[in-house]
């Protein structure tokens, strides 16, 4: 079915080792002869260690990728739990299909635009992954890329991500689950009123084009990364991008029926706090892949462990300060705020986790938790209806975390953990971060708004009033989420 | 509590290294002496690298095994979600106990029958694991097997699975969770009407005897594997076998009350789409252990990454084509079909994932997604009641995937990823696959039918009409799943 | 974003290897010269292997830690599922915040008390982690500790946990999730009637002080460990400690309204068996990190695999015997007993998993499953109200497992798997275990009782009757868990 490690063949080395080991033995011939085949042992070892290194890195990055993949379940549960039961099937279905769309669009074009060699703005090499990877006699160029021992071909293609020696497909998988996350962020904000097909089309464009281009600027060799902008695991690359796309969407969509009437806010309660809580724990767990996995190798265990612990601490301070802030403002420790505070801390620490001290991490999370409550109240003031709090969590804290990398920038941590020091002081780094935030904001918001606008004036993006009242589950899918209970519930 | 690595003691090697390192130093005595204990470093390294290799492989295979284990949660949620609330406790309880039964039966006899050395049909060595593993003074033979450095004993016993150097208990765990999966497939098909005890007895026999024997044919050194039949991770070994056992079961059981009346089909809606969707994501996640973990070592990171990505792509094309097919046929993107399309793609890619190109994987999943919708409709035509779609998903796509390995067979991929090339062309490989499918079909269906028949005419396999109407939760367990809500629901 | 492995610089070794490799070549000058840079390869290899070892161990321990972290979701779901829907939000919220509290309290003081060098009773070095880890110019002492290659500082501080070479933060994360588990055990027992704030204060004290001190006795270099008391993964350190704290709590709290009336027991049914079952599978999965991860290195794959399998077998025999015992005593295979039997087997095997044979593991689990049913009935006789069965599961089986380590003690397994043989016979080991159980019992119960008493007579620990009847979700949080369904349910 499977096999043990490939022979990696290093005959020249074996020959040298043979002399090294055999000759002294000849000189002292009265010594007992070796009872093990030393040449073989050392040869195995040498070959084995290269494969071991790649095996270990691959295992770590893929497991981290699985944890990020798992965040799909977290988003599905938090989003559906925070919305009404009549729209549950729609939200769940969106979460499945959006990852399918992301897989295909990132495979076809997104990966190449993001990580392909090219100019400062987008990749121009290895654009169509499918043709690069699975083409020509003996499977051709891309197939070679699969084999880490024959990297000749893709090293001229995806240089921006060649700092980690894991196989190309491992890189692809890890980056794919990140791209899928960005699309899922939008899903929550536009819930309970968006047309299923229009959402799918937007998601395709987001993951195929919009997300990879700004990603290229920061992680793919583009102008922001080369100008010292830093974002370790994606507060901006993933979360703000998803957040800006979502904000554009809900501005075009408008609030749900009944949310704002005569200047008053009528809170719409989510139908399942068990779902929402389980989803939040899943997201938290997934972040242990998201942030520490962004080392994309296991070559430095200390860095992985550091990022793991700081991620958890920021999550916890975020949850606690959000709970306390809500307690003070509304009188009770509301579970929705607790959950969004947790997520706020996680989003905020995503960029700076490898650039700041542990104590700074605790402070960044704590501020994130306060911020999320105030931003939620602000959105209601502005009558911007965001059913799950995606804007406060992903956009607000994505910006905050990216900025915090500058404000709390520590060169020793940057050198040791991130291995990407800029040498800039706090002020300069903060200015660089600010510029990056602004550039991404303008680009993603504008690009998303154009797509949403086109969709609005062609296919339409909002379901009918009747369907919104009855629920999208019946209208879009012909299903009910809980038919044994729901007839009575509606 | 615990410790660092054992000293592995290789004195002969140390001696040789000593001479290698010390003698040249003597010849050039004016050189600075070594400031580190080189002998020790290299000795540690040599011993360490062997232990590293085994440690890494063990960690990878056990984590993959944990992911497959986790599929128990996925099956429990998909099955209970797709059925009515009044049978939820019964389905959940079955899922717990069936894994308990599987653990014990595979430990007692199944493992030995499957992987023990023997003839072309079943294992005859190391049959009773308990006695092989935990017996005689100083714990005896089996205990030695636990220690990878003293493999003398079990190498003469489980040769078919000695291609991977992981410890025996790691092999056992990984194979156990596979065996448990086969039994769980049956659970969904027979839901809402089977007697609890009869199901437990069938599961015991399936995992103790039926599953290991056909498994031996393919993975345990038996006649199918040695005749070039290939099944990387178990489209046939696990999924079709479970599917045939389930099909035999539901033919003996008959449809649920009220499903088919006067030639018409009355769909019975599942009670919880949140459960079903979460379960589906869990299964999908589990497959990232099921398929890539079937490398059973981390010696080739590229192979693991390749299998991971192709598994995900087939899942996604399956979900999307099933959704579109349902959309065309019934007018809406039904979530049940979306979920079963996802699972269909996963089952279909399980056999060929290490033998076909990435594009072929996308096509195999896409066809699986269409197939699952048509098979679901066909079963209803035939009045075969399969509450969760286990037959379309696991049997139909298990067959399809096994066949697809032949139809899309690529020798380069087989050589590089699976390391098990047959050298046969597409046509010949397809014929070999077809023969294997047929042999397994006849054997498993017949053996299962005999067991179901004996159970039917002794203990009985179906609950009373009264119990079926009231629900098996009360009847079999004296529990309700949702007592706060259910009185109103029934 | 990140980088490949750091150069680890071992010039002395390189020099020696150079002579080893170059000199023989000079002696046989007619031999072909090496075509690879052997010195570099071996140097990379040596440096690489150290980093590989640490990388692999870190990855394994952190993944195991993530699995233990994941048990938070399991506890949240089992506890909320076994209770009524009107208290669901409260239970879920407690589970979030208690981990936040645990993170902060263990970071601030708990870790130092437990693993800091000190006397036989508690740690006195490295007490305040925050100052040790993140202090002074260039981040100072603690920051060095993060780097495994400069361990000078913390080796004089945390000697008791220096047997594993993983980075300090990896040790911290793994131990933190254990500490969090102990606090969560209390949560279930005091459910449906405890004041939110009082519970949070108790949790803080438990994780900051009570848990680390008894932990120090056993794992931190204290008097129990040095007197041959053994507890591989925490039947006593974690589960009994949590259990004693819980028992003290519910004695002060008293039973829920309506549970015991006029000498009769009125069972209060849990609201969601889907939640409870999913939670139980999550806990089971988490235990595959809890027990095998307690190796805290991947240096011995065999030990990890052994502990994995014995953990699963004990879980399964526990589930099956509990089901059968309930079947005999109450006439049906109750799912609550099935789940608690599973957990009982897991708790019971936690101490002895690396000290007993596989068959002994099966027996220990089986006895645990019977025990949990009888203890549950006993508690009701005594009118001690434990809504989730935390006392039978964690306290009863924590004690049983710790004792079983002695009763089934096998020196060969202890030497090979745990690497911590005592050489004591069965009787002597059992006596040692008994003494340890008694000492921990007296200490934890007394300390907890004092804290509960102070809380009771200051802030109060029980909600008002009105709030208990209406549900804590409204009273403590102003939320409902299932607003679409619940108005009708109450």
Task: Describe the protein in words.
The structure is a homotrimer of 490-residue chains. Chain A is mainly α and 490 residues long. Chain A has one domain: Ammonium transporter AmtB like domains (Ammonium transporter fold, Orthogonal Bundle), CATH 1.10.3430. The first copy, chain A, is 69% helix and 1% strand. Chain A has helices spanning 11-27, 38-81, 88-115, 129-133, 140-146, 152-155, 168-189, 196-219, 223-226, 235-253, 273-290, 301-330, 335-350, 358-381, 390-407, 411-418, 426-457, 465-470, 472-477, 483-489, and strands at residues 260-261, 264-265. The first copy, chain A, has a two-stranded antiparallel ribbon with strand order 1-2. In chain A, a hairpin with a 2-residue loop joins strand 1 (260-261) and strand 2 (264-265). The longest helix of chain A has 44 residues, at 38-81. Chains in contact: A-B, A-C, B-C. Chains A, B, C: Belongs to the ammonia transporter channel (TC 1.A.11.2) family.
> Largest sheet of chain A, described in full?
2 strands, antiparallel
- Beta content of chain A comes to under 5%
The beta-strand count of chain A equals 2
**CATH domain topology of chain A:** Ammonium transporter fold
- Largest interface pair: B-C, 86 and 95 residues
| CATH top level assignment of chain A | Mainly Alpha
User: Considering the protein shown, what is the CATH homologous superfamily of chain A?
Assistant: Ammonium transporter AmtB like domains
Low-pLDDT runs of 5+ residues of chain A are 1-47, 131-153
What is the ordering of alpha helices and beta strands of chain A? Answer: HHHHHHHHHHEEHHHHHHHHHH
Residues in helix, % of chain A: 55-70%
Q: Based on CA inertia axes, which overall geometry of chain A fits?
A: globular
Strand order of the largest sheet of chain A: 1-2
Per DSSP, the total helix count of chain A is: 20
Main location (chains A, B, C): membrane
Family (chains A, B, C): Belongs to the ammonia transporter channel (TC 1.A.11.2) family.
Subcellular location (chains A, B, C): Cell membrane; Membrane
Protein name (chains A, B, C): Ammonium transporter
């Amino acid at each position: 079915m499977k096999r043990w490690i490939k022979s990696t063949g290093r005959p020249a080395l074996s020959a040298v080792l043979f002399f090294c080991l055999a000759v002294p033995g000849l000189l002292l011939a009265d010594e007992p002869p070796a009872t093990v085949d030393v040449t073989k042992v050392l040869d195995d070892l040498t070959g084995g260690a290269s494969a071991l290194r790649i095996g270990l890195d691959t295992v770590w990055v893929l497991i981290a990728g699985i944890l990020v993949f798992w965040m799909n379940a977290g988003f599905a549960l938090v989003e559906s739990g925070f919305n009404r039961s009549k729209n549950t099937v729609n939200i769940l279905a969106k979460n499945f299909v959006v990852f399918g769309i992301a897989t295909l669009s990132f495979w076809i074009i997104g990966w190449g635009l993001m990580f392909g060699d090219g100019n400062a703005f987008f990749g121009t090499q290895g654009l169509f992954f499918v043709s690069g990877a699975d083409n020509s006699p003996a499977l051709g160029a891309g197939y070679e890329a699969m084999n880490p021992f024959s990297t000749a071909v893709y090293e001229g293609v995806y240089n921006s991500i060649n700092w980690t020696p894991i196989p190309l497909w491992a890189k692809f998988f890890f980056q794919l689950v990140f791209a899928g996350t960005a699309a899922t962020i939008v899903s929550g904000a536009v819930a309970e009123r968006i047309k299923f097909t229009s959402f799918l089309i937007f998601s395709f464009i987001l993951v195929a084009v919009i997300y990879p281009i700004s990603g290229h600027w920061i992680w793919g060799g583009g102008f922001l990364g080369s100008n010292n902008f830093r974002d370790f695991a994606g507060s901006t690359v993933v979360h703000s991008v998803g957040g800006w796309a979502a904000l554009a969407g809900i501005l075009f969509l408008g609030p749900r029926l009944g949310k704002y009437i005569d200047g008053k806010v009528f809170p719409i309660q989510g139908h399942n706090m068990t779902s929402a809580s389980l989803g939040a724990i899943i997201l938290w767990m997934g972040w242990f892949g998201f942030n520490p996995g962004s080392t994309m190798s296991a070559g430095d265990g200390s860095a992985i462990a550091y990022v793991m612990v700081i991620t958890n601490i920021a999550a916890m301070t975020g949850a606690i300060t959000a709970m306390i802030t809500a307690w003070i403002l509304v009188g009770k420790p509301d579970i929705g705020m607790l959950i969004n505070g947790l997520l706020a801390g996680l989003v905020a620490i995503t960029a700076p986790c490898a650039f700041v001290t542990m104590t700074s991490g605790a402070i960044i999370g704590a501020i994130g938790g306060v911020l999320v409550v105030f931003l939620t109240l602000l959105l209601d003031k502005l009558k911007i209806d965001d059913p799950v709090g995606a804007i406060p969590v992903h956009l607000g804290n994505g910006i905050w975390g990216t900025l915090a990398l500058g404000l709390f920038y520590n060169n020793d941590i940057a050198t040791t953990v991130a291995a990407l020091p800029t040498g800039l002081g706090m002020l300069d780094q903060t200015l660089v971060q600010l510029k990056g935030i602004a550039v991404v904001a303008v680009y993603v918001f504008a690009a998303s708004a154009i797509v949403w606008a086109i969709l609005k004036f062609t296919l339409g993006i909002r379901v009918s009033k009747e369907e919104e009242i009855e629920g999208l589950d019946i209208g879009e899918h012909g299903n009910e989420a809980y038919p044994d209970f729901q007839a009575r519930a509606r």
